[in-house]
């Protein structure tokens, strides 16, 4: 039971069946080559499933084929969900984008900023002129670190101080607030713990545990019955094993993702992190994406107003930042490709050498999952594998886009550029 309507044939959704086979062949090849244990791809057009394929199994050598309702760790695909949760409270008038985060996170009231550092990693610090705003928190321009990378002393401090391994969201905030900002708020983009802190803001404003808020305000209304921070005992047989590169061309069960231990899905996580902790299925996450594509509503249930979705889909990285490159960025943001409130935003696909439509929203997770939402072509795509993000999974995501759009046959007539 997919809980989503489907076309009888891809051609009804404007896709060439033969050309879509390239995507299926690539996925199957990844399994046959031992590069992934299994995976799912779910392609939707105009609110209906065009193709929904599964490959391999939940674990290497599994004789049972991967079920359509297989459970995946979606890691940073939690971030758009957290952003929607925050915008629900935004619509209730509980906060504004230009509020200082100290209104909800007073731990950050006495911040320092790293303005320079030497080869040994010693930082020169100054006072910040102001705290980050909620807009900057949601767009990763607040100056916070993450502790997942090793190319800046602030990042190394986040890892050394165990920010991501804190025992609670409150403790995570305290540890992060004790570390200097990497740059002054609004002056650069850096992937960070910002969305974990946003989850804490949701808790403090709503008065609810973060996971309870998500279930009550998003998952239950949207019918995302398999999404949450923990897997029920009866559903554990549907959970996929997370793998990592074994260094010899094969796979090994992952024990950590970028230094953070992989938690047991049958137990509550140490924290219900807004930045990456949810488990979901391809169908559940497609329902979430379709809600965004449809302007905040699905199956007669409204989560957000269309104007709020448009706001989330607007670039929030300041223009001077987009005008220059920076080695610390996770992605090559520029005037053609920015970041909104929880998603990357494609403004000029031709300039970026991409086939997707203008306004496409996207993100991925550290376990190899990814999605995009293309409003110009009315497309939702969700891909689910369980391989810790690396060049192989990055290639997988890139080819999935190419193989999808080369099969799209009714994207509109070609027009000569004048």
Automatic annotation (TrEMBL):
Gene3D superfamilies listed in its UniProt record: DD-peptidase/beta-lactamase superfamily
InterPro entries: Beta-lactam-related, Beta-lactam/transpept-like, Diverse_Enzym_Activities
Chain ranges of the Beta-lactamase-related domain: 24-401
Domain of life per record: Bacteria
Name of the molecule in the record: CubicO group peptidase, beta-lactamase class C family
Annotated organism of origin: Brevundimonas viscosa
Lineage: Bacteria, Pseudomonadati, Pseudomonadota, Alphaproteobacteria, Caulobacterales
């Amino acid at each position: 039971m997919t809980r989503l309507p489907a076309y009888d044939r891809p051609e009804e959704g404007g896709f060439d069946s033969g050309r879509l086979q390239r995507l299926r062949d690539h996925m199957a090849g990844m399994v046959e080559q031992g590069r992934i244990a299994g995976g799912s791809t779910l392609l939707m057009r105009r609110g209906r499933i065009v193709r929904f394929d599964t490959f391999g199994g939940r674990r290497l050598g599994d004789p049972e084929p991967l079920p359509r309702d297989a459970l995946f760790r979606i890691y940073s695909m939690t971030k758009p969900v957290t952003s929607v949760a925050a915008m629900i409270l935004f619509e209730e008038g509980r906060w504004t984008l230009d509020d200082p985060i100290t209104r909800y996170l007073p731990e950050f009231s006495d911040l320092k900023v790293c303005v320079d550092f030497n080869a040994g990693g010693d930082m020169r610090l100054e006072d910040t002129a102001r705290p980050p705003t909620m807009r900057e928190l949601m767009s990763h321009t607040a100056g916070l670190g993450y502790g997942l990378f090793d190319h800046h002393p602030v990042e190394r401090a986040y890892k050394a101080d165990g920010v991501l391994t804190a025992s609670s969201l409150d403790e995570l905030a305290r540890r992060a607030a004790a570390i200097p900002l990497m740059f002054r708020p609004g002056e650069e983009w850096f992937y960070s713990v910002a969305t974990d802190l946003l989850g804490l803001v949701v808790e403090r404003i709503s008065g609810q545990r973060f996971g309870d808020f998500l279930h009550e305000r998003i998952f239950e209304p949207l019918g995302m019955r398999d999404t949450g921070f923990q897997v029920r005992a009866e559903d554990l047989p549907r959970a996929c094993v997370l793998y990592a590169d074994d260094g010899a061309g094969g796979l090994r069960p992952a024990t950590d993702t970028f230094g953070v231990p992989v938690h047991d899905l049958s137990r509550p996580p140490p924290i219900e992190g807004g930045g990456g902790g949810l488990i979901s299925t391809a169908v559940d996450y497609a329902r979430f994406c379709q809600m965004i594509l449809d302007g905040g509503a699905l199956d007669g249930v409204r989560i957000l107003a269309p104007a709020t979705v448009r706001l989330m889909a607007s670039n929030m990285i300041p223009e001077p930042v987009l005008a220059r490159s920076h080695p610390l960025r996770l992605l090559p943001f520029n005037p053609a490709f920015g970041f909104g409130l929880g998603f990357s935003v494609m403004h000029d696909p031709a300039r970026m050498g991409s086939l997707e439509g203008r306004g496409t929203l996207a993100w991925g997770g550290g376990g190899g999952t990814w999605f995009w939402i293309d409003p110009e072509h009315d497309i939702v795509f969700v891909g689910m594998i369980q391989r810790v993000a690396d060049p192989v999974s990055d290639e997988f995501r890139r080819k999935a886009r190419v193989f999808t759009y080369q099969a799209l046959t009714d994207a509109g007539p070609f027009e000569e550029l004048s």
